[in-house]
Amino acid sequence: MNIKRIVRIALMTSILSVLSLISIPIGPVPITLQTLGVFLCGFILGPLDGGISVILYLMLGASGVPVFSGGTAGLKILIGPTGGYLLSFPIAAYISGYGADRLKKRMSIYAVGLLCIAVNYLIGVPYLAFIARLSIQKALTVGAYPFIIPDIIKMIVAANVSAKVRKIVLKR
């Protein structure tokens, strides 16, 4: 791994960490800019490096660095109600990066982004239901429905920003 690649991964981990600090609590799952950061990691760096940057973010947070939503940290967050969403982030970064590497049409990238949002909910909602002892319907009500439109907006913003940034960042 060369120094440019390490710096790009570290930079995107830092951007994700800063975006995660912006948090609006509305229940067990807050509104954050984490998903915007995850999309940026994948769309800009590609599947492998995007996934690595998000895994690095999770490792920082798990080890006690306050990078999770609202400046929280620790393993307790990963095993708490929002842990499933966090654990889905490397998968979403990988999928979005894969799409960015292989698809050039913006609408195709949007479709990949929607798949990533679905993966986030398919992992996060059942995890929330299990940990918080909620029905799936209640978990959907507090952990998915309020976030669908904001997540789609964040994905579209990330796709549009990354289309321009990716050419500069990945210039060899």
TrEMBL record:
Entry GO CC: plasma membrane
Record keywords, A-Z: Cell membrane, Membrane, Transmembrane, Transmembrane helix, Transport
Gene3D superfamilies the record matches: 1.10.1760.20
Membrane topology field: Multi-pass membrane protein
Leader sequence residues: none
UniProt entry tagged with the keyword Ribosomal protein: no
Cited InterPro entries: BioY
Similarity comment: family membership: Belongs to the BioY family.
UniProt name for this protein: Biotin transporter
